[in-house]
Each structure stands twice: as C-alpha cells, then as structure tokens.
Amino acid sequence: MTPIQLAAGVSTLLIGCAVATVSTAQQAPAAGPPSSAANSDALETIVVTAGKRAEDIHSVPYSISAVSGAELESRHIDNVEDIARTVPGISFGAGGNAGKDTITIRGISSQGGNATVGQYLDDVPIVTQSSFAPPSPTSGAAEPKIFDLDRIEVLRGPQGTLYGAGSLGGTIRYITKSPNLQEDSVSASADVSYTKHANEANYETTAVVNIALVPGVFAIRAGVDVGELAGYIDQYTQIPLTEADVTAGNYLAQPGALLNRGVNTQRTVAVRVAAEWAPTDKLVITPAVFAQRFTAGDTAVFYPTLGRYVQDKLVAEPSTDTMAVPSLTIQYDLGWADMTSVTSYFFRQNANTSDGTYFNSDFIQYLADTSPDLGSCQCGAAFTGLPGPSYSHEQTATTSQELRFASKLPQESGIPISWVAGLFASDRKIKTSEYDYITGIRQTFLNLYGVPPEQTSFADAFTNDFAGYNSGKEDQSQIAAFGDFTYYVRSNLKVTAGVRELRANTSFDFNTGGYFAQGIPPHTQASNGYTATTPKVSISYDISNEATVYADASKGYRIGGYIVPIDLTTGLCPASLAAIGIANPQLSYKPDSLWSYELGAKTDWVDNRLSVNAAAYYVDWKNVQQTFALSCGSLFTANFGNAVSYGGELEILAKPVRGLLLGLEAGATHATLTSVAPDVGASVGQHLLNTPSWTATVSSEYRWTFAPHDSAFIRGDYDWIGPSHGSYNPNDAAFNYPSYSTLNARAGVDLGNVTLSLYAKNLANDQTIIQRVTVELLEDAYVPRPRTVGIQFKVAL
Description:
Structural class: mainly beta
C-alpha cells in the first residue's frame, strides 16, 4: 500500500470523527504527555505572558489565542500561513515564499508603510518590514522556524501600550521552551513526506537536548532543525515573441520545452541555544541565541495562462533569508515587584533575484519604438527577449533594551491593585540595494541599429549591460515609557488603564544612478521626528468562577516613513501625480492611527469540559498608509484615506467524553475604506486587501489508552477561508480572491517515549488560486501547497 492510499484510508476514519470540531487555540491543551491529556475529563488551561506577567488566559481582558506546543505538533503547523488558517482574525498576503508574506489581523491591512502587526520571539521584537522599498520588495514579515516552542500567542487588536508602535492591528509572540533546571532530556524527530506534483521527497529532522549541569541552578537547552520542501513548480523555455505578440500584448501565449522540474525548493536550517542560571531563588539569568537560514530555489508562483505549476520566466528568482536573535534576559524578585531586563539584538538579511524582464526589457522596447531616431525600425520586440535580472538586498539590524517592573498580584500582596511599568529603547538600521541589468542590451543595439546606445536618444552606454541601481538607508531610534495599572474594585471586578509615550527619530538616505535613474536626484536625504501617546482602558467582570465579560478601548499608532524618489522632471510620472492631485510630492508620508473598541466573554461550562469564548470589535482607522501604482509604472506611498473594520471571533472547545476533543473557531471581518483621495485607484466602500470576509475551522481529536504507557490518537482539521480582495482595481485579476479550504489529518501511536504518526496536509488537494502576487508588474498565481502526505517518528528520553 502506498503512503497516499494509506493516508486516504486514515482520512476516511478521521472525517467520520471530525463532525464539528477544532481544538481551539484559545484553550488548546498544554504541552505534556499525550496519554495524560487523554485520561483527563476536563479541558486544560493555558498560562500566557501577553500582559508581561504569567496569568491564566481567561484573565486577559481582550481577545487572545494561544496555540500550545503540543497543538502545533498535533496540527502540524509549520509556518505563518498555517497559523493564519488556524487562528481566527488573522490573514496573510502571499509573497511566494516564506519570509515574504505580510500579516494582517482584523483587517488592518496595508500594502505600504511599516508593518501593522508586531512580532516577538519571546520578548525580542523581530519586526522587519521596511518603511521604504524599491518597486520589487525584498522581504515581508519575519518567520522564525516553528520548533521547540512552548506556544504561540496571538493578541488581537492594537497593543500599543505594552508592545509599541508596530502593533497597530495586533501582536504575534513566539514563546520558546525554557531550559529545565531539574532534569536532563533528549528528543529527536524525523519526518519524511511527499507532495503531489513534486519529483522528490520532503524531509525534516529535529533534535533538542536539555542538560541540567547543576540541578536547580544551571541548565542548557539546545536544538537544531534541518528540513527541505521539494518544489512543485516547473520551469519551461520561453517561446520568443514576435512583433505581433508585442503589439497585441500577448506576452504569455504558451510555454516551450520543459527545462527544470520542482524549481521552488525550500531549505531551512534553524538553531537555538539557551541557558538558565538561577544563582539564588530570586534571580534568574537567561542568555539565548536563535539563528536560521532559509533558502529558496525559486518562488512558489506560476503563470496560470500557461497551465498549472508552469512558469517560463527568463530569470530564476532564488532567495536567501538569514536571521539571528541573541538576547539576555534577567529576572529578579524584588519582593514588592518582579524586575525584568531584556537586552537583545535582531539581525535579518535577505538576498533576492527578481525577474525584471516584463518591466525593464519591455520598457526599453516601448522607448525604442517611440524614439524619433529609432522608431522607423519598429524592431524593438527584440528587446523583450532579453533577460532582465534584478538583484536586491535588504538588511535590518535592531538593538533594543527593555526594563520593566511588574507588581505582585492581589493574592500575593494583599492590596487590590497590580501594575506593570517600564522603559523601552531601540535603534533600528535598514539598508537596501537593487541593481538592474538587461542581458545583451548593448549588443542588441549594435545589431539592430548599427550604433551603440550612447549615440542614440538613449544616451547611455549600458556598460556590462548595467541599467540602473539604487541604495537606501533608514535609521530609526525610539524611546518609550509605558505603564499598565489595574484596580480590583471588588474581587470579581477590575478596571485597567494603560498608556505608552513614544518618541522616535528617523533619517533617510537614498542614492541612485544608471539609465533607469533618469530624472531622479542622485542623492536624497530626509529626516523626521515623531511623538505619540497610545492609551487603553478596559473593564473585566467575573459573573461567576466560570464566566467573565469584558470591554476594551485602545489606540494603535504607526510612525510615518519614506518613499523611493521617482522621476519628477521627465517621462510620465509628473503627469501621473498631477492626475491624482499631487502637485508637490513629498519623500515621506505621515503616521496613521486607530481606535479599537471590543466587547467579549470567556466562559467555562460543565465542570470545565466546555469552553466558549467570543469577541466583537469595531476599529476606526485614520490616515491609512497605502502604496499604489502610478500610471507611469512607479509606486507611490501616501496617507490616502480612512477605513473601518468590524467583526468578531468565536471559539468553542468541548471534551464530551474522556479522550475526545471537539471544537469550532470562526471569525468574520468587514473592513472597508470610508474615505479616499481622488484618482488613486480606490474608492469608498471597497474592502481592505488580503482580508477574508470570514474563516472557520472545525476539527476533532480522539485519544485512547490501550496499555499503561501506550496510547493512540486520530485527528482531523478542516479550515475554510472565505473570499477576499487583492486589488482595488475591479479589472485586475487579483480583485476577487475566491474562498478555499484545506483538510488536514493525523493518526498515530505513543509507545512510551516513542511516537509514530502518519499525517496529511491539504488532503483534498484544493488548488484554488487564492492570491496573485505582483512581481515587477507581472501577475503570478499562488495556490496552497498541494496534497502532502508523510510519516513522522519522534523519540523523547
């Protein structure tokens, strides 16, 4: 029996068991031996640190989900796209590879400006999306490899008080497992799988060791994860275009011969080492370092006009994404409060090659056929067959320091107040560069016109086929003071008020040159300063020991940024700007901000065997930062309007009988523009981008014990993602994204310290085109990874 046939048989049993289910992230089972979870009649609670202190997730007075490490493994969640399909309220904008996606929470979606979602590895900020970018962006959200995690926390709604200006829509926190001071342990796993249409297997191996060198005092935990995903996109030769093709705009008529199969391979190496030293019962010192390298052979996009999984571009688009996060955390119990100091450095570097042929080479064709001294030939189609590689590089380096104090809770201090207060400072430096070439352009000029290009109206030698470059640098420093104060009016009623005061300074330095830089100043500098106050207030009332209701109002803020200068003296861009009413374009855009209002309830029923959590929200967003394309082809970022987003989330988890876990989680979002600048390609009432109207996940898991230390399990998850929009232009193929679904399954046995399981992701092989990625003005199609069936072996000692 083949793995696929075996998986199909297992999935039939799983579907019969998954009637109305998902083990919701809000109350997912805590990490621990699976057999103990199977033998428990009640749901297990989760302790989170979203409020900068450890507390039961039900005590947090706003919407939060926490996916435990056991749940991550059970559901085989591997990346941010899996998280977005699992946790309600989150969505993503596909970039074609890991590390290029953008993340959206509750519809706070922006295709330009700084990131709208804060990201943290433990207490270290890892936000990297640049506030400026060349037309071909080099990176999206950082995506740390999901391995050896205690949990992932998703904080919905603006988190400006405790997490700062980068958390306009919410925050995602990746919480790693701490070293165990008491005992040694070793775990290792091996995973082999096969993806439909791929020509080779996927694999992943993980090993984690914990050594208590001085029991109770000093321990080291180290882990490594190495994996490769086989590619399923095939590369074909490109049939040369004729003059008639160019005139008709027929650039992707049909592919040529097959060149390479599975070009979009993905390789990841991740390492984490952490130590914990507790010299006294009041002091804990934790140095840690996380590092990873992600390498892609090409993007995971294809050209639908040529066929499924087919591309015929002239330039391959490999990329490398490197990340390193060293940190030092010191925790000290002062008696009256707990002090925490987090010193960190975040480094991320991306190197990408993009196919600029459909922009660079076709642009040259247009200019050649319309230039007075060359137009009579009308043979510019020859340029469209010249590869146009674009080599881009982005580097982000952030040094940060946070010092905070958290009071004791009332049950410890005996007084009805608690608070968190601290200082945060960071210095972020971003460097980008892009170098564009058109391979063979100089010789083509000589062949077509008998003269070199510098002797024509182009007036450029195109030495070594070089067409242009740009390099940019942005420095951003900030300092903030924050505080969060809770007053317990009664034992079951508490009111929380918080505020963050931010001061930030930024500077921008940009250089450009070459043929494509005509009309653009060769050197541009600018600087700005920002101040912001982000308050919040919430009230929480315990109706009973099992039911809590809350209301929350909070402000989110995002600092402004800079744009790459465009041609303002020649060509079509001045007229393009004039058409949208911009007479004096600026190099920078202003901050935007929002107010979010939320009502929610968190409840437990039937002796903690049923959990129902719900939230409803309304967001009012002002001066939205957005990037749009001018008719001249350049991108321009500005504050072009206002928007609102409203909706809600529902999470239900039930354990009707021992060993059976059923659940449902769903979300609905209605995010639209309420005002917009004229002639920017968007209109009032249009939906914000990459935000599904609704999502729903049902799933079930059943575990049973067949020996004192042995158990078996079977699980099914069905994710359903509603329709969304990828463009404001109704004529754009990306305007309407359809709904799609993924069915996942897993079954296996726990034999003492050994776990053996069979799993399938996207079992129904839904290949709906869910998004279209625009790279160098060429629209590419993106689908969920095809059906992947695998087997996993894990041992823990």
